[in-house]
Every structure is written in C-alpha cells, then in structure tokens.
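Support case: user asked for a sample of complex input and structure output to validate their parser. Sending the pair below.
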Amino acid sequence: MRTFLSGQLNELREQGLYKNEEALTTAQATHIGVEDGRDVLNLCANNYLGLADSPELIAAAKTAMDKWGFGMSSVRFICGTQTQHTTLEAALTSFLHPRAGVSSDGAQVDTAAEVAATETSATEVSATEGDDEWDTILYSSCFDANGGLFETLFGAEDAIISDELNHASIIDGVRLSKAARFRYKNRDMADLEAKLREATASSRFTVIATDGVFSMDGYLAPLPEICDLADKYGALVMVDDSHAVGFMGQTGAGTPEHFGVSDRVDILTGTLGKALGGASGGYTCARREIVATLRQKSRPYLFSNSLAPAIAGATLKVIELLKESSELLTRLRENTQYFRQRMCEEGFEIPESTHPIVPVMFGDAVVAAKMADAILARGVYVRAFSYPVVPMGKARIRTQLNAKLSKDDLDRAIAAFVDARREVLGS
Ligand SMILES: *Cc1c(COP(=O)(O)O)cnc(C)c1O
C-alpha cells in the first residue's frame, strides 16, 4: 500500500495538483509571518471580519475557560450541557432569524451579552419570544451540521435537489440520505424548476439545498427566486451560509437577510470558523421541530463532542460585538467595493458580485500560478486555483478581503497585482 500511495502522490505532483500548505509563523491576521521570515499581506483567509486575532475574543475565550473549563469530555446527552451552549444557541437563533428575536410587543429580545450576564437559561429566553418557532443546534463544525442534516430528516420517500456547485459537506451529507437525489446547474432556475417538477411528482418531502455564496466565484445564490419556486412546488429551502454569516445583510445575519427572505428559508446551516471568530464550530438553525429532531437523531451531534467552552464563550462575544456596532460590516463593505472597483480599473477580469471573495480571472492555469508566485514575491499572500477545483480554462487567483485591511494595504495589493502582471504577461 505504501508503494501504491507514493505512486498516487507522485502523480498528483506531476499533474501540478499537489496541495502545499503554507506554514504561518503568526496568528491568522491581516499581516502574517511566513516560513522564510517575511511579513506578508494576507488576502487568503475566511477571516472576513478580521476577528481571528481579536483581543476581545481572546479575552472572552479565556474568561469562558476560567469559568467553564477546557472541555466537556463527551457529548451533551450523556455528560450534560453547559448553559453557555444553550445561551449561544438562543443568541444565534435571534441573530440569524430576527423575527424569532422579536417579542409579541415588537421589542427586541436582549442581546446575547445581557442574556449571558443575567445567566438567563435558554428556556427563559424562548419564553420571552413572541414567535419562538425557531431554534439552533450547535455542531463541532459546519461539515458536521451538513453531514448530520439530510439523512436525519429525509428518507426514501423524499427528494433532495442540490446545486451542482454546493460545498463538499452538503454533497457528502446528501449521499448519506436514502432520499432521491437531483442536481441542478449552478444558480440555474429553469433547471431547478425542471428538477422540482420531476421530484415532487412522487416525493413526500422535497428540499432544495444551496450554498448562500459559492466560494470559488463569490456569487450569491438567487434566494428570492429559489424561495418562489419552493413555494410553487411545496418544497423546503436549505441554505448553507458559511461564506455569508456575520457580514452579509444589514445586521450580518447572512444571505437570507441580504435578500429579505429570512422567514422563507426553512433550514440554515453555517460555520463559526469563518467570519464569526474563525476558530471552528457550526450550527443548524431551523423550525423548532426540525432542531428537536436533530437533537434526537443527528449522528454528528449524538456521537461527537460539542463546541469547546472557549469557542462558545468567544462566539457569544462576536454576536454581542455585531449587535453593538456595524463598523466592521461597513469597513468590510467599503474594502470590498474599493478593491473590486480599483482592480477593474486596472483592467483585471473580476466576476460581478458584491461579496468579499474577489476572484481575479486568468484563464490559463500556468499563468495564474506564475502570477500568484510573483505577487507573493511582492509581499502579498494569494493563491491560484485551477482545474479540477474550478472549470478547465477558468484558472484564477481568489482573493478574500476583510474588515481590518487598511486602504494602504489594499493599494499595496493592487500595485502587486499590476507589477506582477508586467513581469508575467509583459503588459
Ligand atoms: C467552510 C464551509 C463549510 C465547512 O465549515 P467548517 O465549520 O469548517 O466545517 C461548510 N459549508 C460551506 C459552504 C463552507 O464554505
């Protein structure tokens, strides 16, 4: 087997598909140290709000560890659950689903911080809600949230219709289910409708599954159209909002808020490992009966540890920060708009979107790789993506912006792109 695997690994190297990992010598941040001792500007992280090295989050994590310990050493239904986990679930519900946080008299439910400060239990929180149909369940990753979703809720009588570019964790989660499987072309509503017609002819429940944002292009899923089709055919809508939660939409609740369809999306999954602090952890937010069923039957919840106390504590802090101030969201939006506009002015090909994932298209895989090397040599860390990660002939450098980049940083990055292009392409 060693000989076989070595052969396979060599093949990957020969095809240029071998993935090297850049070793960082510092915290994940806007400027990072790399192994050759240089300090480089970082345009490669999912750290959209720049919170990954935030002193406030680190302090919150330490406070949580002092109070709640390092770990729980098992799963919740056996060894118990900490009230900060249930508090976080309630805080995520009201953050992700603003309607659930509004009491019958229209007043907003307390912020996570106030909830935590008064040690209100999750049951008391929900008792204050006028519309408490929604709930959230934590997982140790979004990969697990997706992995434990479909097989728990959808059986052989049901159908799952999935966008062809959905994240690997949705694909794997769907594979575990016995439901009939359909795949539609990326964001293609005519194809989705054809698949809905076919699926709903014989299925009991039908669910449309989509990423909120497609991470290679920075394109948003057309949620209003998807919800319209779901209504027309009596299907449910599931959105994995990992690349949007924390910053898309007016309060950062994600793509459903961005499109004004928060109460039309039935199941939301997402990660705590990108904008919401950047450590790890995931969740599913859905109607109460769905979440209650997941707590009973979802295998990654039942058979894997829940979030470490430090992450639960720090995530509560992130939600508090986002409720207190929209400054990070505003800065991320300004940075995104500035970088997109300036790069277009410099003649780079950028797919149209408003998302902080900004792919710079080169087409040819060798050119994209040479550009990435030349840009890194100029002190800006970027990576090239080529086939099979993206379609043949659509090689690109995928940049990702964050709220902590300064205008100087952005100007430096743009200059590095322009200068590298002169070296690589002579233009
Ligand atoms: C990053 C990502 C995940 C995985 O999240 P983890 O919490 O790191 O497991 C799942 N789905 C999508 C769409 C993602 O972008």
